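Final report, section 2: Outcomes. Of the targets proposed, thiosulfate sulfurtransferase is the one most frequently requested by collaborating groups, and we therefore present its record in full.
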Amino acid sequence: MSSFAKKITIFLVLALFTTCLTGCNSHTFAETENSLIVSAKELTDYMGKENVVLVDMQSPEDYGKEHLEGAVNIPAESIVINVPVKNMLTSKKKMESIMSASGISNDTLVIAYDTDKMSASRLLWSLFMYGHENVKVVDGGFETIKAAGLSITDQVPSVTEAVFTAGEPSSEWLVDSSRVLEQVNSPRDNVILLDVRSDEEYYTEGKIPTSVMMNFTGNFFADGTFKTTEITKINYLENKIYPEDEIIIYCKTSFRAAPVFVQLYEAGYRNIKLYDGAFLEWSSNSDNPVEMPDGAAAPSKKDAS
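The predicted structure is given below as tokens.
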């Protein structure tokens, strides 16, 4: 490419970026005073502090091999129940039991990390659901923690049991299948059904009608860290998803939906909810419509019990 062509290309990219920023400024994004995302380097400001509990979301086996020094283990599978379908929000009683046994009280700042870009965010959303919003996730998860040179161990820390009292599940962050069906049958312009599964899943399984497809992987840089809030705003505005909208996020079981919840919240979106039953629950009901790509055959119905 010639020098002149390069200059033209750079100019066009900058012009597009400026246009997108102007679009961002025409919408009202909430201020996120306390970030939900903490970098691995910032963890040293929290480690060993009173009323702070670091949570490792790995399986017990992987946790036993290595974890951040001082971190307690809350495996992802312990914060879900598998009825009526897989990976539903766990009960209030179980959440209270798990948090209390992990040394987490209602005054505790919870900082969680994972190895899959999903589990820590799922814990965050689950705590939000029960009224505990003093929680953060580690940007990039365990890999960035190790890359930052923080102390890694296989020793299990001693835990002093606490008392965690959960609130009633909040409708602020959750919808059920009846609410989704209502949107499908009578679409409202300011409500977005956001499907964060892959295109391949859409091609083979279909989607909930009217849903916007945006793969959850698009919220991350190649190193697994979250994209900046500025890039996030641009990406979602380009897809006509505005902070004034009600955004209902789902994937297969709404685990991938959780980091999208975190990223949108961080970027200043607030009217965001998870459809917890997700596509697994939706597609298990033969009465629910499924939209397939043009020319694709409808999938056979599966029992999700």
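The domain at 37-153 is CATH 3.40.250.10 (Oxidized Rhodanese; domain 1).
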